């Protein structure tokens, strides 16, 4: 399987492409709040994935050294998801709530699609 850092690098590339599409959608359509919500959610979703990559590195290091690791950062990732939704709720004229929640899931969709592409290529 692919290294987690390689997956994160691919996610960042896909995120920049998504931000470019969102900027075009924001600039040329009348759905500005939806595209801003997707961008906000994708930003926080990528931040959550970055936290997961960092914690998995620490978990692997500690496992190799025989130490215990307390957590994989679930509370921190949950808190950043709540922060994204709180921003969308407090500024509804700028951010669409449903698209923000959808944007939070985009990095995980990229992860699943990347795994499927990897499996199909190497079969």
UniProtKB/TrEMBL annotation:
Protein name, as recorded: ATP synthase I
Keywords assigned by UniProt, alphabetized: Cell membrane, Membrane, Transmembrane, Transmembrane helix
Membrane topology value: Multi-pass membrane protein
PANTHER family, sorted: ATP SYNTHASE PROTEIN I
Pfam families: ATP-synt_I (PF03899)
Listed transmembrane segments: 35-53, 74-91, 97-120
Places the protein is found: Cell membrane
């Amino acid at each position: 399987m692919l290294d987690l850092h390689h997956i994160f690098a691919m996610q960042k590339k896909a995120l920049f492409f998504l931000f470019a599409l969102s900027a075009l959608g924001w600039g040329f359509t009348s759905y500005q709040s939806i595209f801003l919500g997707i961008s906000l959610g994708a930003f926080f979703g990528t931040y959550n994935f970055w936290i997961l990559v960092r914690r998995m590195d620490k978990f692997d290091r500690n496992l190799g050294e025989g130490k215990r690791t307390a957590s994989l950062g679930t509370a921190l990732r949950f808190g950043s998801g709540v922060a994204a939704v709180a921003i969308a709720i407090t500024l509804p004229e700028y951010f669409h709530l449903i698209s923000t929640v959808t944007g939070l899931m985009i990095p995980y969709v990229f992860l699943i699609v990347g795994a499927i592409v990897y499996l199909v290529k190497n079969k």
